[in-house]
Amino acid sequence: MAGTLINTRRAPDGSLLVEVRGEVDLQASGRLRGILVDAATHQMPTRIMVDLLHVTFIDSTGVGALAAGRNAAQRMRLGFAVRNATGMVAAQLRQTGLYDALTHG
Question: Where in the numbering of this chain does the STAS domain appear (predicted)?
């Protein structure tokens, strides 16, 4: 969706915060996947934190983007976690069986 906003910022401790707002659907998931994989493989932060507090919808492609980011971070031996997944977003992550893997990294 054109209205999906993805902002990144580096914290003083070297971690990278990725803040996502709006809907993470087929149109936005490729961009999110690219940002997360690039961060893990090229920016090399100490940890990647994905904040989903303002995400109103996520589909299977969005969940796949989060999983791809986590997998890239694991390959590079970086921490990765999703935070503030609530409501429908948390339900989607639970339904796929990825809630614990993504939120406790």
Answer: 13-105
Three-state secondary structure call for residue 25: coil
End-to-end CA separation in angstroms for the chain: 28
Give the span between the Cα atoms of 16 and 22, in whole angstroms: 20
Q: Are 72 and 36 in contact (CB under 8 A)?
A: yes
| Beta strands, E only, the chain | 5-10, 16-24, 47-58, 79-83
Only one residue has tokens 């406790």, namely 104
Other Cβ atoms closer than 10 A to 13: 8
Walk me through the domains of the chain, giving residue ranges and CATH numbers.
5-103 (3.30.750.24)
The pTM of the whole model exceeds 0.70: yes
What per-residue confidence (pLDDT) applies to 1?
A: 41
- Residue 2, pLDDT > 60, answer no
